[in-house]
Each structure stands twice: as structure tokens, then as C-alpha cells.
Amino acid sequence: MPELPADFPALPQPQLDLAVERAALADFYDYADLLTDDETATLRRLRGYLAEDVAPVVEGAWERAEFPMQLVKGFAALDLAGLPYGLSGTPAEPARRLFLGFMHAEIARVDPSVNSFFGVHSGLAMGSIHAGGTEEQRQRWLPSMARMETIGAFGLTEPHGGSDVAGGMETTAHRDGDEWVLNGDKRWIGNATIADVIVVWAKDLESDDVRGFVVPADAEGMTMAKIEGKTALRIVQNADIALRDVRVPDENRLSGGTGTFADAGGVLRLTRGNASWGSVGTQMAAYELALSYAQQREQFGRPIAGFQLMQELLVQMLGNVTASLGMAVRNAQLLDAGRGSDAHSALAKEFCASRMRETVAWARQLVGGNGVILGNGVARYFADAEALYSFEGTREMNTLIVGKKITGHSAFVR
């Protein structure tokens, strides 16, 4: 292919300011000041790693739809995966939801896919074992998962079941002596093709309860295929999973807590809150990249950052980021105080994801045609936002959760 001449005009190259010593530029009201000195120091270490090791590889990995496995070792060295459960850090006690939220926003600000990988492993998989497992089961799996020597996935969604997967679950489990036999299909299972263990949810044929099972990824009878052709979160390794007479020992059934899907419900409440932070981080990145681009791109003899309509777009974006961050912060504070509810997390996820969708679209609009190609970052966030908008509860489902809370009337149709 012929090369362009050396004097062909270069495009603006907007950059995220990944300076380790300060919070994101988009934190206009300095919400990060609510963190303790130790939490801030941990975030600085995370920012350094994201800037040096993650940011340089994500665009290429996104284009190839590959997960950069070398990142696992780097995240393990940061000792973050076990923080929600008191398995990492000093002192060894569960981290505040407020800090964990800022952590997810930082990761999503650099790449939403990488944040999804981390959230599935540390939040959904480890969270299910922590909430639903016995003390013996926690000790068996969680320490190695905290060290990221064992990678986890979360097998809930099915080909015919998304929003109503718990009520309409088709994957079944029946007990046969000291084993359980699982049959069914799962879809959109993040981390599946790189995981060591998968928490699979199945309906007990005898009791009709939905139960969780920790299934080794190489279990006989379980096959999986990576979902190809995605236009969002391409780095996340989602898979279809088929379970055909998969035998799991009873000791792998999550038998602590209630022993039912109610345990997963508590996990989903927290991860839905985390999803709102992922939306915040994605908005932050889109806003910051659009601002950087506007300061570099010149039209009519001056930077477009000096045009009234461009400033209006940027201010609207910043308003969305600030409102979303404020809601995510307050939701985390309520969770830390033991006062957070499903409705609180649902409203945060619905609002933050909806504002994110606007923000990334405005960023794409400001960047113009250059916003549909990889290389300046905006296109990746614009595409990834569509997946973030739908997962951890669609806008409609989260709306009905909040609607039931505030009216006292359920509008769910069964």
C-alpha cells in the first residue's frame, strides 16, 4: 500500500491526563477529596499502573478483540481484587464502597473492558462465593482469587433469559448422590474463556430454588465458545457455554448464606452500584478526550474550544459527569452505612448509564468524523457505552425497581 507523503497533515491526538498525583480532570467538584490519605495513595498506585501498562495496549487489544493476559500479573501486584472482602491491603478489613467505586471509575476511565474484566472477577465471581459460600468454601477459593492466581467468571445469563433469568431459568441441577448434574446453556458470560472457575447458577429440580455451583472451567461436559463480532467491550472475553451432564461435587455447591439465588441478589446490588461507577469513568474519559481535542483542533483560524457551541457541548458533558459522580458517591456512602437498598443502586445505575450515553455521543459529535475511528479514544468509549448501558440491569428494569420502591406498586409483568 502506498505511503502518504511526510507533509500530510497530522490529526489532533487527544490524551487523557493520567497524572498519578491528582484526581481526574473531570472531577470538577473534587469528590475524590472524600477519600482518606491511604485510599488516595492506593489510587495513585493504580493510576500509575494504568498509565504505564494498560493505556498503551488497550486500543490494539480492542481492535483485535483480545484480552491482554499480561495485565493479570500487574493487577495482582496491586493487591486490589480481595479488597471488598478484607483479603487484600493493610489493615485486612473490607474496603469502603466509596473507595471501591473510585477504583472502578479509574479503571473504566482508561478502559471500560478492563474494568468489566476486573468487576466480573472481583465483584460477581468472588462476591458470589463470599456471600453464598461456607467458611470452608471461602478459604478454598477466595485467597487464590484475591491473588489473581485463579480467575473467576459468573454464569447467570441464558440465551432465553436476561432480565428474567432468575424466574425463567432453564439451566437445571439435580442431585445424584454426592454430586449434582448440571444441564443447560449460558450466554454472555464474561471472562469465561480465560477463567479457571465459573460460578454457575441453576434451578434445583427438586426444590425449584436457584442455586450456585463453583464449576472448574475444564469440567467434563462443559464447552464454551467465544462470542465473536461484538461492537462493544471487545476486550472482554464473553462466551456461550453449554452444560451437558456436568457433574459437580456437592462440596462445590454454594451452601452458606441462604443457599439460594437470594445470595446473588445481594451481590448484584453491589455490582450494580459498581456499574454506575464504570459509567462515571467512561464519561470522564469521553469528556476529557473531547476537551483535549477541542483545544488542539483548529477551524476558521483558531481552536474550536473557543467556539460557543463547542463550549456548550463540553459544559453539558461536564454537568452529566458531575451529576453522575454525585449520585454514585452518595449511593456508595449509603451502602457503607448499611442503608443502601436495591432501589438506590438501581437508580444510580439507570441515571449514570443514561447520562453516559448522552456524554459519549456529545464527545463523538464534537470530534466529528475523527470520532468514528480508533486512535483518538473517543470511538472506543462511544462503542463500549452501549454495552454498559444494558448490562447489570437494563434502564427499563432498573426503572421498575425504583418505581416499585417509590409507589409501593409492582409494575413487573410475569
Name the assembly state.
single chain
How many distinct domains?
Answer: 3
Low-confidence stretches: none
Largest sheet: 7 strands, mixed
Helix content: 40-55%
CATH architecture of the largest domain: Up-down Bundle
Q: What is the CA-CA span between the terminal residues? A: 58 Å
Q: How large is the count of helical segments?
A: 10
Instruction: From the 3D structure, determine the CATH topology of the largest domain.
Output: Butyryl-CoA Dehydrogenase, subunit A, domain 3
N to C succession of SSEs: HHHHHEEEEEEEHEEHHHH
Instruction: Determine Rg (CA atoms, Å).
Output: 22 Å
Organism: Actinomycetospora chlora
Pfam families: Acyl-CoA_dh_1, Acyl-CoA_dh_M, Acyl-CoA_dh_N
Keywords: FAD, Flavoprotein, Oxidoreductase
Domain Acyl-CoA dehydrogenase/oxidase C-terminal: 266-406
Descriptive overview:
The N and C termini lie far apart (58 Å). α1 packs parallel to α3 (97-110) and α7 packs antiparallel against α8. This protein folds into three domains: 31-146, Acyl-CoA dehydrogenase/oxidase, N-terminal domain (Butyryl-Coa Dehydrogenase, subunit A, domain 1); 152-252, Butyryl-CoA Dehydrogenase, subunit A, domain 2, CATH 2.40.110; 261-407, Butyryl-CoA Dehydrogenase, subunit A, domain 3. Strands 1, 2, 3, 4, 5, 6 and 7 form a seven-stranded mixed beta sheet that branches. With 414 residues, the chain is of the alpha+beta class. β8 (298-299) and β9 (302-303) form a beta hairpin. The protein contains ten helices and nine strands. 49% of the residues lie in helices and 13% in strands. 48% of the residues are buried.
